[in-house]
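<instruction>
Derive structure tokens from the sequence
<data>
Labelled lines for chain and fold:
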Amino acid sequence: MTQLEDIYHTYFKDVFLYVYSLSGDKHISEDITSETFMKVLTSLDSFRGNSDIRVWLCQIAKNSYYSYLRKNKRFVDLESVPESASGDNVEQDIAISEASIKVHEVIQSLKEPYKKVFTLRAFGELSFNQIGKLFGKSENWACVTYHRAREKLKHNRRIIDEN
């Protein structure tokens, strides 16, 4: 197995989950993850090893995702909008959808770096050490920031639920 294949098999899921935490869209995440590994193919020699390779891959993925957003900021692919899986229980689908929207609204209400740290930890499943490295900070900073974000989310959710 080549070095790139080894990296791909080891880190594909991590990169995909990270991009999915940014985009919230499975198809976009698949495309950006593929693009990330294509870029790695051409730039693997430039990896100096100063950071964890997972952090390096996530940086490439993040930059690719932001480039994607800049290129597509005015367009919405209607085929990427998910359809309801069960057409039987419309009331339940609406309730789940409304709850999901509320959760995302609460997360979006966070200021940076709380929003990104929470998203990376909760959806990207990155360790505090990895998150700290992405921000050029310590593992402890990432842990404290994540827990502060959780507290802010609890507080903000109470405010939204009261309204």
Remarks:
- The helical segments are 3-23, 26-43, 53-71, 90-108, 114-122, 128-135, 139-162.
- DSSP finds seven helices and no strands in the chain.
- The chain has two domains: 3-71, 90-162.
